[in-house]
From TrEMBL:
A family per Pfam: TylF
Alphabetized SUPFAM superfamilies for the sequence: S-adenosyl-L-methionine-dependent methyltransferases
Domain of life: Bacteria
UniProt entry keywords in alphabetical sequence: Methyltransferase, Transferase
InterPro entries: SAM-dependent_MTases_sf, TylF_MeTrfase
Protein name: Class I SAM-dependent methyltransferase
PANTHER family, sorted: MACROCIN O-METHYLTRANSFERASE
Source species: Paludibaculum fermentans
Gene Ontology biological process: methylation
Molecular functions (GO terms): methyltransferase activity
Length: 274
């Protein structure tokens, strides 16, 4: 039953159960913008009337990408990570259980809350009450770039309001899945402000989806020392945002670390701390 529940949870978080509605939204937007004529029958039977459009949409969504690589086309699913990266989280969690690696589970940069919701669902499915889930985010969108390493990455809320998801909405998403309880903790604000004093002792899993060089650097600086031996570190933006990659490489080099890094997909990586 655990496998069935977790597979259904992944499908829901990824939007796979209602992908036609996401495609319809994109179709309606293009119609409203005058890019294509609106037809009611097309809206109702979009997978029949626009098969190539739907095929492309589903293929991109499955790997955590969006049409034309435009953030405006991101959609409304509860996570943007795609199936491979979400399955990677599950695989790391299973290894943590097998190895009895101590510590809590954490994601920094949570957007709609999908990955932390899955973390909590995994604990619930396995009846684990001794671990906690931490979700850290500004809950106001990606901060404006402040360092030269981030000067080409303007993902601020002024430009992309669909990246700015409030804490209230994330909590509501947890509640909809029946997973908002005392094992879930939220850290609201910039990582440089919340992480240094966060009451986190040990982490078995640290997932970094921080976008910017500065944010990624701060997460590693304040939290990497708390990752247990045998724990996992996952970096979501390593392959697509140069500043994120630079922050990871600089941190590992500065501390003389050379973990065996594994590629998840076109942008995600992970390694096990030894």
């Amino acid at each position: 039953m655990e496998t069935l529940y977790l597979d259904l949870l992944k499908k829901s978080l990824l939007g796979e159960l209602y992908w036609e509605n996401e495609a319809r939204i994109l179709y309606l937007r293009e119609s409203a913008q005058g890019l294509r004529p609106y037809d009611w029958h097309t809206e109702l039977r979009i997978e029949e009337r626009m098969p190539e459009f739907c095929r492309t949409f589903r293929e991109l969504a499955s790997v955590g990408r969006f049409l034309d690589d435009r953030v405006e086309n991101l959609g409304y699913q509860h996570t943007m990570v795609g199936r491979l990266r979400l399955s990677n989280v599950e695989q790391c969690l299973e290894q943590i259980l097998r190895d009895q690696t101590p510590g809590d589970l954490m994601e920094c940069g949570v957007w709609q809350g999908g990955v932390p919701i899955f973390l909590r669902g995994f604990l619930r499915a396995h009846g684990i009450t001794s671990r906690h889930v931490w979700a850290a985010d500004s809950f106001a969108g990606v901060p404006a770039s402040r360092l030269p390493q981030d000067e080409d990455e303007d993902l601020s809320a002024d430009r992309f309001p669909n990246l700015a998801i409030s804490l209230a909405r994330v909590k509501d998403h947890f509640a909809r899945y029946g997973l908002l309880d005392g094992q879930v903790h939220f850290l609201e604000g910039l990582f440089s402000e919340t992480l240094p004093t966060a009451p986190i002792h040990t982490l078995a899993l640290l997932r970094i989806d921080a976008d910017l060089y500065e944010s990624t650097r701060d997460v590693l600086t304040f939290l990497y020392p708390k990752v247990a031996r045998g724990g996992f570190v996952i970096v979501d933006d390593y392959g697509c945002i140069p500043g994120c990659r630079l922050a990871v490489e600089e941190y590992l080099a500065r501390h003389g670390l050379s973990p065996k890094v594994h590629t998840i997909d076109w942008t995600g990586i992970y390694w096990q701390k030894d």
